[in-house]
Specification:
Elements lengths: L1 H50 L2 H16 L5 H10 L2 H9 L9 H25 L11 H24 L4 H24 L8 H16 L4 H18 L5 H21 L10
């Protein structure tokens, strides 16, 4: 009987030890899973932050504007054209079926996005390759000044080009809004980066893309466009590139600049639904 009790106790001990081993094994597995999950999140955040870089959001916004300018027959197109053009020019634009005299709108979008977005990126990549700047993130005040000045210059150069090719009016308004947002972010950076505080340009670019998407697309854009802003902003926070305040300010500043410029031409998000 005593031997049976001892045997039973040994068996229970082995069960408890086995359970402990399982718990230990599970603990190691959980750690490995957590590490793998962290790596996956970091990779995803880098992917989002690279894809959501200002040059690419500007390029995407250019094509959104092209879509808005060729939405012929829709209420949006009539609203855009009638408020940007005189009656004679409006009739002329209708007869041309919202196509530029020289280039179609998609070609203009490629031109605008290429000069205003991709060209500054290539310029910075050359500077990075030459060791003139340390990172494409433009971490220092000097690097940010270089980036902002070149981006602003490219935007200014686009104005006479759009005039020469008789681009649709919506492209001009888009470019005015872009320049205003760039100026505001630039001058804010000149002041705040002396204290180590930099507004998120990534979030600002995402907000600009969000604004033109809400303006040019159907009501479905109100579902996905804000999510895009949140996703890009999250990536900047996850990678510890910005604080919450820097991200929020970038979003509201850029969105506000676009809303202000479009409102000057009597175009607002609410007007689309009126």
């Amino acid at each position: 009987m005593k031997d049976a009790v001892l045997a039973e106790g040994d068996e229970l001990g082995r069960v408890e030890l086995g359970a402990g081993a399982v718990r230990l094994s599970d603990g190691v597995s959980v750690e490995a899973l957590q590490e793998g999950s962290s790596r996956a999140k970091a990779s995803f955040a880098r992917f989002v932050t690279n894809l959501g870089a200002p040059p690419f959001t500007f390029l995407a916004a250019s094509y959104v504007v092209a879509y808005g300018s060729v939405a012929k027959g829709s209420q949006k197109a009539e609203l855009f054209s009638s408020r940007f053009l005189s009656p004679n020019d409006f009739e002329r634009s209708q007869s041309l079926q919202h196509v530029s005299s020289y280039l179609q709108e998609n070609d203009i979008a490629a031109l605008v996005g290429g000069i205003g977005g991709i060209l500054p990126l290539l310029f910075l990549a050359v500077l990075r390759f030459g060791g003139i700047i340390g990172s494409l993130d433009l971490d220092t005040l000097r690097e940010r000044i270089i980036g902002f000045l070149f981006a602003t210059g490219c935007g200014v150069v686009l104005l006479p080009i759009l005039q020469a090719i008789e681009a649709p009016p919506l492209f001009f308004i888009f470019l005015y809004a872009h320049l205003l947002a760039t100026f505001c972010l630039f001058f804010l950076t000149l002041y705040t980066m002396r204290f180590g505080w930099k507004t998120s340009v990534h979030s600002g670019g995402a907000a600009c893309l969000c604004f033109v998407s809400l303006l040019c697309f159907s009501w479905l854009a109100w579902l996905w466009a804000p999510i895009l802003v949140v996703l890009i902003s999250w990536s900047r926070l996850y990678l510890h590139r910005h604080t919450v305040g820097q991200v929020v300010l970038g979003v509201f500043l850029a969105f506000g600049c676009y809303a202000a410029v479009f409102s000057v031409f009597d175009i607002s998000l609410l007007a689309i639904f009126s």
